[in-house]
């Protein structure tokens, strides 16, 4: 396996962790929020993150690598913080949305860093497509947070 393939696998595995973090983070938000519409949105986003992780795992396998299958320690700590903050604030929608947005900020950063790396065209296309989904999630969560803040 060449160094460039190993580097590509490393980039993909980092994004798998990011996607798994997003999946678990959205699940945590869904568990903590009372609003049924937000709960459904968070569940849908968790499913999308799971699908994204699956696509990235398939790309790693195609390259002959071993795909990541877990979350990151940083993501685990963030989810614990979301859950704790939710309990302290009485499951405030704004607080939960703030933390969801923070998670999406981290995901955007990870995807931007990945897109700055030299990658095979097919891998770049996959990551770029997923990046647009992360951007959409971020913007929607931010808009919902702004609405909750104004209420």
Automatic annotation (TrEMBL):
InterPro entries per UniProt: CHP02284 (IPR011971), DUF2383 (IPR019052), Ferritin-like (IPR012347), Ferritin-like_SF (IPR009078), UCP029477 (IPR016920)
Q: What is the lineage of its organism?
A: Bacteria, Pseudomonadati, Pseudomonadota, Gammaproteobacteria, Pseudomonadales
Q: What is this protein called?
A: PA2169 family four-helix-bundle protein
Start and end residues of each DUF2383 domain:
7-117
Q: Transmembrane ranges?
A: none
Domain of life of the organism encoding this protein: Bacteria
- Pfam family membership, one: DUF2383
């Amino acid at each position: 396996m060449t160094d460039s393939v190993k580097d590509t696998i490393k980039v993909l595995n980092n994004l798998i962790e990011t996607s798994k973090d997003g999946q678990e983070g959205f699940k945590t938000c869904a568990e903590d929020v009372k609003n049924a519409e937000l709960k459904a949105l968070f569940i849908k986003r968790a499913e999308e993150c799971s699908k994204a992780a699956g696509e990235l795992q398939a790309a790693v396998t195609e390259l002959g690598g071993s795909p990541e299958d877990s979350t990151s320690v940083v993501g685990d700590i963030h989810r614990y913080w979301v859950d704790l903050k939710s309990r302290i604030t009485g499951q405030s929608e704004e607080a939960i949305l703030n933390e969801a947005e923070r998670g999406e900020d981290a995901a955007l950063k990870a995807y931007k860093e990945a897109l700055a790396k030299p990658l095979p065209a097919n891998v770049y296309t996959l990551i770029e497509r997923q990046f647009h989904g992360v951007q959409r999630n971020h913007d929607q969560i931010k808009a919902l947070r702004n609405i909750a803040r104004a209420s």
